[in-house]
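note to self — DONT lose this again. spent like an hour looking for the file last time. sequence + predicted structure for the chain T wanted, 356 res
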Amino acid sequence: MPKKIKCIRVPKRQGEKALVLASKLKVVDKEFETQKDPDFVYIPFISQPQEDGLKTLTEEGVSYEICTRSFKERKKPKASLVELLETELPPHLLASLPHAVDFVGDIAIMEIPPELEAYKKIIGYAVLKTNKNVRTVLSKAGAVSGTYRLRELDFIAGEKKTETTHKESGCQYRVDVTKAYFSPRLSYEHNRVASLVKEGETVADLFAGIGPFAILIAKTHNNVKVHAIDANPSAFEYLKTNIRLNRVIGKVHPFLGDARQVVSEKIVGVADRVIMNLPEKAIEFVDTACNAVKTEGGIVHYYSFVNASNSIETIENRFTEAVEKAGRKVVEVLSSRMIRETAPYEWQVVLDVSIR
């Protein structure tokens, strides 16, 4: 609700100077927003400013009048997670609060360290308070593992659910975070690869999941064909849902099954570009990618991990050897880059490689 308080009215041409001076003199009431009209600037000031302060404005050549006007209160900044929990947690544990939270649709997923396990419900409700769009808070109960790249998640607070709709780069993705792999941290990578695709290309996404690469490529190009493959039946059902949801039917062609079998039976030698986002096992499918690429050659986006025991150079050499073993040749490593840290001293990396 607006509130009538005293203010100083200054000509608009002197507004910036007056505001700077008044702030330095500490006479501005910062609980209210400064106002403007075509001719004047209205600066709210504290109810009993020091007369010397206002006198200084005159000495600095600022023309002003004291008047009364209705002002809106400034919106108070939202309290941070740490601020909300300062009185709820022992002080020595505040430093252990998770700094990274994954937001998938209206679900927040965080990693609760062992020392905070007894406080996870309190932390969960604080996350709900600090993020108005979040309805559910889950905690990671294990690492990503298995053929389908899933992890166990524990419910902490909010609405007890694991299915949501995630929005990213103009696309919508329906997903159950316990049944299909999806990482919002790969948003930049989805956009990067999509931006490299040229009109008229055929793309093979060997481990498509719910479709973040395939659907964005189809959504941002008029003339492309994307073969999207995944072995996880749940991810495949969400992939089909998301193809319909994003209106890319006929541009994205979904396949359920092992990438080796699908490529060998249905898409040999058709791809200008192959996406291999399965860092844990992509090396085992290099021959499949080579099988999918056109005879004259194409581009492979190969994902892997580097850690203390290997390097990007090691990954490049290993990939090159696998390509040669499959009867193809690496023409050029177009790009190699680290994407994100996935564990202490471990990073996900991507190679963009031209092969023929």
